[in-house]
Amino acid sequence: MSFKLEGPLLEGALVRLEPLERRHAPGLAAAAEEDRETYAYTWVPRADEVPGYIDAQLGRAADGKLAPYAQIARATGRVVGTTSYWEPRSWLSEDRLDAIEIGFSWLARSAQGTGVNAESKYLLLRHAFETWGVSRVDLKTDARNARSRAAIESVGARFEGVLRNWSRSWAPGEDGRLRDSAIFSITAEEWPRVRGRLAERVAARAARSTARRAG
Whole-structure pTM over 0.85, yes or no? Predict the structure, then answer.
């Protein structure tokens, strides 16, 4: 595939998505240790695992399989999690990208429910559809992860089904086991509708955040 997967800096009102670098390690280590019970079926590195985690992500990026990001809360300037583009697919032409997945996403407890996730997805989806011109964006999660499934549906993705024994399990205590994955997608035809609703949601959350800081 001649298309080269590189994720640019993406900035919104609530979150800034910076291409992941080793300098993000201290912030990610602190974020990863917040209330770990909220991560449930999502694997999040421990503080001492963060340098190796970043090296692994940068290795995947060098192979053209991943474009990893650090999520930065604009209100505080703190690193609050990661997300990525990954599994680029080109079917019609090697010169263009036809489909991509958004994954490797997690947020510190303090950033959950703040609108950071919604705006992060908005920025990634907008770039994928409007700059790269993809036909489809996928999002997957452990089929048992009700919180993650609800979050994915809330951004406007459509549930397509459960892929059985689809990938390794990231749940604590399930090393060496496979998981069922719930798969969701947004297509290019659906994006204008999804974009409008998601943009309104993010704008409302940003306005509330600004009002709180002003007060």
Answer: yes
